Amino acid sequence: MLKKAASARRHPALLAALAVVNVLAVISILLLFAAARPNTGTATTMPQMTIRAYKADLIERLAKPPRIVILGGSRATRFNPVSIFRKTGETAFNAAVTHARPDDEWALVSLLHQRFPRAHFRFLWVMHVDEFSGQGPSRDLVSDDLLSQCFPHKWVAYWCKRRGVAPEQYPLFVQPPGMTLAPDGYTEHNSLDVLASKLPLAQRVEQTIRRTVTAYRLYPTRLQPERRRYFQKTLRLMNSKGDKTVIVLAPLQPRFYADVYHHGWGLRLATIMNYLRALQNRYRFDLLNLSRASSVHAKAVGFYDGVHLRPATCRRVFDTVLSSFPRALR
User: Fold this and answer.
1) pLDDT digits over 290-308, tens only?
2) DSSP 41
3) What confidence tens digit (pLDDT) does each residue in 238-266 have?
4) φ, ψ for residue 249 (rounded to 5)?
5) DSSP, res 250
6) How many Cβ atoms sit within 10 Å of the Cβ of residue 130?
7) How large a percentage of the chain has pLDDT more than 90?
8) Which long-range contacts (CB under 8 A, 24 or more apart) does 30-38 make?
9) Within 13 Å and on the Cβ side, how many CA atoms surround 173?
10) Confidence of residue 45 (pLDDT cuts 50, 70, 90)
11) CA distance 286 to 315
C-alpha cells in the first residue's frame, strides 16, 4: 500500500523548490483542483524537479478522479484534457512522462487507484515501437519517494545503487528548465517548442531520422522481459479494477516514417503488434495502429520533429479513437 503523502510533505527539500514558484500561481492551482473542474487557468513553470515526481504530486492533489487518463511518453504530453472535456464532457488528466516505459505506467496507474480506490478509469495509452526496449527503470522513478513505493524494496534498492541515487531521495535534478505544466498534467511548453522556434521542421525531422537509424544499427529488436512483466502487471491491474483501456501506436511524421521503415522500424512495429495482439487473448484492451499520419489525417507540419505530436495531431488521434471505439473512453 502506498503512503498517503501531500506533495509539500514528501520531503523538506520540496519546500525550498516551491519557493521559486510564484505564490499566486500555486494558489490558483490549488483552487482549480479544489473545484474539481477541467483546467482553464494559467499554467505554472515547474520548480527544479523531475516530471515523474511532478505528475505524481498533481495526482495527489486531485480532488476527484478524472474519467479519462492519458498514459505514454513525450509523444503523449500534448493531449489536452481541456480539449478532451469539450469533446466528451468527461474530465481528464495527462499522466504522460518523458521516456516512459511500462514500469512508469505501472507506478502511475497504481498511484491513481490508490488515490481513488473506487474509480473506474478510461485509459488512453499512447505507445511507440521501442516501448519495451532499454534496461532498467529511470533514476527519476526509483528515487522518487512516492512512486518507488509501488515496487519491491529490494528492486528499488538495487536500481538506486545502479543509477547512483539514494532511495527516497527527493529528485531535484535532471528536470530541464522552461517546462510548463498545467494542473491537469498538460504540457504547455517544453524544449520541443524551443527547438521548433530555432530550426525548420525539415532539419528537426532529419535529426530524428539520423538518431533513430543509428540506434537501430546498434541495438537489436527485443522486447525486454522486465518491460513485458510490468506491462502485463499494469494490464492485470486495469482489468481487475474495471478500467477500460485503448492502446494506440502513435502516428509518425510522414518523411520520418518513409525513411526509417526499412531501417529496422518496420520490424519493430511487427514485433510489438504481434505481441500486443497475442495479449488481447488474455487481457481486455482495444488496440489501434495509427503509425501512418494518414490514418488520422494528420499533416506533415503536425509534428515537432519525426515523432513528437503537436496538439492538433493529438486531437486527430483522440477523434480517431472515439470513432473507432465509441464507448471505450466514456
Assistant:
1) 999 999 999 999 999 999 9
2) S
3) 999 999 999 999 999 999 999 999 999 99
4) -85, 120
5) P
6) 18
7) 74
8) 30/61, 32/183, 33/61, 33/62, 33/63, 33/183, 34/63, 35/63, 36/62, 36/63, 36/64, 36/91, 37/91, 38/81, 38/82, 38/85, 38/91, 38/92, 38/184
9) 11
10) low
11) 19
Options 3.90.380.10, 2.60.40.10, 3.40.50.1110, 1.10.3720.10; CATH of 7-324: 3.40.50.1110
Hey, what amino acid is at 158?
A: Y
- Find the largest Cα–Cα distance for the chain: 52
Contact 157, 164 (CB under 8 A): no
Q: Which residue has the cell 515523474?
A: 52
Beta-carbon contacts of 167 under 8 Å, excluding residues fewer than 6 positions away, are 142, 143, 148, 156, 157, 160
- Among all chains, which residue has been given the C-alpha cell 480506490? 117
Give the start-to-end residue ranges of the domains of the chain: 7-324
| Verdict on whether the full-model pTM lies above 0.70 | yes
Task: Look at residue 214 and give its three-state secondary structure.
Answer: helix
SS3 per-residue string spanning 113-151? HHHCCCCCCEEEEEECCCCCCCCCCCHHHHHCCCHHHHC
Query: What pLDDT, on the 0 to 100 scale, is given for residue 70?
Result: 98
